Amino acid sequence: MTKKRFLIILIIFLLIVAVVLFFIFKPKKQETPITEEVQEEVIPEKFGIPLTGWELIEDTVRQGDYIGGILSKYGISSQQIHKVVEMSCDTFRTTLITVGNLYTIFYDTIIDDVPQAKIFVYENSKMKYTLYDFRNPDTVYIKRALKQIDTITNTASGIIEYSLWQTMIDNGYNWDIALALSQTFAWTVDFYSLQKQDWFKVIYDEYFVDNERVGLGEIKAGVFHHGGKELWAIPFVEDSVLCFYDTLGNSMRKTFMPAPLEYTHIGSRYSHARMHPIHHVVTPHLAVDFSAPTGTPVYAASDGTIVIRTYGTGAGNYVKIRHNSVYSTVYMHFSRFGEYQVGDRVNQGDIIGYVGSTGWSTGPHLHYEIHENGKKIDPLKFEPPPAEPVDSIHMERFNKEKRKWIDDINKIKLPN
Ligand SMILES: [Zn+2]
């Protein structure tokens, strides 16, 4: 064996040893955890079209734009544009576009610097769009559709400083939540006597399209801490009707609204001896006068039947509702009547007239009487009987659902 050959064999041998040693003492790689997670491939979509393979142009309809002009700018043939116009003669009116609305061009090729549109989507509104599909050169496919509306459950809370409305705004919530909340609690919270440090927590749904809020959904549940009392609104479906109850299962509704309108202040209270503002003689005022601007809607305080709807010298335009054998209510000085006629059934909250100053009246207000067995009682001291509570056969289910709502509401933190 020559020296040279020995050296070559030695080098090969050392290389083999090095390779073997490398694999034995190889620094162990950070062990990658084996997870069960299967990466699901999510293909993003827009207007129901998977976005793979497309280029998009998004733009806004400008003054002077018309659909044919936009389409021809993006390589759509005059024959296809003609078809779009033909198809728009139906009730669809598919060529009508509004300045400022959005549109999207889907294309996959560019010829002579012109992106060749295959799909054109015009957004009729925040919720609706019209899709024009030009992929088949012999025809045009047009579809009107609703965008995907996402319902998101959110929470709000606040401590009253001046008003519910102001507190909502100050805490960065939308004003419509204040309106919905005041409706949910209309029978249990007197929003005209909210006090500083009263507080609320509420769970509600909001609707979103493309991450943009398009509206308020339902109030789900809430609590109002008012005048030292905790007033709960627990939702419960009984016989497929959703109502709100307190924690004991009593209805949040009363058989009578506390006031049959949104008033600004109380003009005259119930009194057996009041100086009449027009006649200047002491006469009893067995009613309450709610001041409100002319045109403010007046609601039926409870379910009933309209028994009088006429003009009286003193009463002006007035309405009497008979609720049952015990109770009737009277509403005076309307500027105009609601749509209900004598003999019509009305439900609590139906508009029966609008505040005015007809008859003997010194300014726009509602003169409101409650008759109990024919006797005029004080509407502001009247404790109306509550509406039906949760049926005892559903109490177990109510208590279970109530627990969950209370837990969820209690998790909401009050702002500092
Ligand atoms: Zn009066």
Describe it.
The structure is a single chain. The chain is an alpha+beta fold. It folds into three domains: 48-146, Nuclear Transport Factor 2, Chain: A; 150-245, Nuclear Transport Factor 2, Chain: A (Roll); 265-377, Glucose Permease (Domain IIA) (Distorted Sandwich), CATH 2.70.70.10. Helices cover 18% and strands 37% of the residues. The protein is built from six helices and 25 strands. The strands form six sheets. Strands 13, 16, 18, 19, 20, 22, 24 and 25 form an eight-stranded antiparallel sheet that branches. It has a five-stranded antiparallel sheet with strand order 3-4-5-6-7, with no helix packed on it. Helix 4 packs antiparallel against helix 5. The longest helix has 23 residues, at 3-25. It is elongated. The N and C termini lie far apart (92 Å). Zinc ion is lined by residues 268, 285, 287, 289, 367.
Keywords:
single chain, 416 residues, alpha+beta, Nuclear Transport Factor 2, Chain: A, Glucose Permease (Domain IIA), 3 domains, 8-stranded antiparallel β-sheet, 5-stranded antiparallel β-sheet, 6 helices, 25 strands, elongated, binds zinc ion
